[in-house]
Amino acid sequence: MNHDVTTLIARIVENGDTEAYGEIVTRFSDAAFAVALSILGNHEDARDVTQDSFVMAFEMLRDLRDRAKFACWLKRIVSGLSKNLLRDRKRRVAAHNASAEHIVKLMPDALTHAQNREQDDVVYAHIQALPERHRTVIIMKYLEDIRYEDIASFLEISIRSVKNISFEAKRLLLARLAKAGIAAPALLAARSA
Question: Which sequence spans correspond to the domains of the chain?
Fold first, then answer.
């Protein structure tokens, strides 16, 4: 796979081949989205960061020293942009914290409404509570349906490590859900870790 990526990158850098970059985007977009989603916890923000990451990668592609390491390089870009967005969001949230507390006091049923969210939202919140590495793998595997081989290549770890992390993440998530009295979602039960 890395040989294919290096060939595509050579076509882009040397010939300005935008179709080759389209192939790279197609190949890595699910994995990039999964990393952004695991950090941000919001689909819309993850899509925006993924798109911005591919634009930034395209603009900086000539600076990539080891073309075979494109996946790792892209992951660092996605992670960096995601963490920057979180940092900016935390600053905005802190500025509006007093208003939010006031609104919650005015809406006595807000807590009841939040407790009645759909099971998917609750499960996703438990996924977000997992350590980042576990969260990334479980999102890539179970929510984005990315193969172990592709996850391993993108994260630059062995397939065995991905399977071990996936197994551990699934175990941790199921334990958290059981402790909260939530039935395991069919998505986790239907696939083997």
Answer: 1-111, 117-193
